[in-house]
Amino acid sequence: MPPRWRTEPRFGPDGPAPDPAGSHHDRRIRSFQPRRSRVTTSQEDALRRLWGTWGLDIDGREVLDLGAMFGGRPVVLEIGFGMGEATAQMAADDPDTGILAADVHTPGQGNLLGLAERNGLDNIRVANGDAIILLREMLPPASLAGLRVYFPDPWPKKRHHKRRLIQPEFLTLAATRLAPGAILHCATDWEPYAEQMLEVLTAHPDFENTQPDGGYAPRPAFRPLTRFEGQGLDKGHVVHDLLFRRREN
Ligand SMILES: C[S@@+](CC[C@H](N)C(=O)[O-])C[C@H]1O[C@@H](n2cnc3c(N)ncnc32)[C@H](O)[C@@H]1O
């Protein structure tokens, strides 16, 4: 019997499903743009060979047993890993922590699976779909030791601000899935979004700032440079990290 979280490779005639929960939960405001992206041969190869073991579809149909998936390790959820280089680096640096890495970006999923295989990382699982559904429907209360949201899509146009991930409603949901004392770590190079993050996190009753001055945190040494961060730095953007703790209440 395969473990409960295993799913068959999702390659249909049109390629992988970009958002498996779509038809069941279609009244969502999505924080991502559903799109088809080119998948390289090696990414496709990794998806075909490794998905059944290390991948899972976010279809909202079952509650995951994280203890069984990660061999009892504490588990951190990363939302939006992009191409996954920073995720793989963090998994290698901290093999005693499990990383549940969620994104809708198929090339990145293949890339991260390939990186995990090449580097012998058994503490990563790649989740395909909307992390909101993962949090809401598939993760038990207080099951996460941490949450990482690095360089989420900034949605700069005003009419798109509702698509930004870091909002009060999201924080309320995330707080229920984080264990007391767990750290929510956000980073962004988009100044207005950094200000919004600081404002909504500071105002939220379930979180407290780890910084005594109530401001941004120095970039922690454990967070590698991400691909989007590099692009932002090239444009002269300033990067802000935010480290907030789930209150014990
Ligand atoms: C701007 S990219 C940053 C990627 C990476 N963290 C980096 O810094 O290079 C944001 C990523 O978040 C993903 N994303 C946005 N909303 C998401 C959601 N609700 N669930 C899963 N992934 C999401 C997007 O697909 C995209 O790959």
SSE layout and pairing:
Layout: H1 41-54, E1 55-57, H2 66-69, E2 75-79, H3 85-93, E3 98-103, H4 106-118, E4 124-128, H5 131-138, E5 144-150, H6 168-177, E6 178-188, H7 191-203, E7 207-209, H8 227-234, E8 240-246
Parallel strand pairs: 1-4, 2-3, 2-5, 3-4, 5-6
Antiparallel strand pairs: 6-8, 7-8
The structure holds S-adenosylmethionine (SAM).
The site of S-adenosylmethionine (SAM) has 22 residues, from strand 3, helix 5 and helix 8.
Region (Disordered): 1-40
Pathway: tRNA modification; N(7)-methylguanine-tRNA biosynthesis
Binding site for S-adenosyl-L-methionine: 78, 103, 130, 153
Question: What does this entry look like structurally?
Answer:
The protein is an alpha/beta fold and about 250 residues long. It has a single domain (about 40-245), classed as Vaccinia Virus protein VP39 (Rossmann fold), CATH 3.40.50.150. Helices cover about 30% and strands about 20% of the residues. The chain has helices spanning about 40-55, 65-70, 85-95, 105-120, 130-140, 170-175, 190-205, 225-235, and strands at about 55, 75-80, 100-105, 125-130, 145-150, 180-190, 205-210, 240-245. α1 (about 40-55) packs across α4. It is globular, with a radius of gyration of 17 Å. The termini are far apart. It binds S-adenosylmethionine (SAM). S-adenosylmethionine (SAM) binds near residues 103 and 104. The site of S-adenosylmethionine has 22 residues, from β3, α5 and α8. Belongs to the class I-like SAM-binding methyltransferase superfamily. TrmB family.
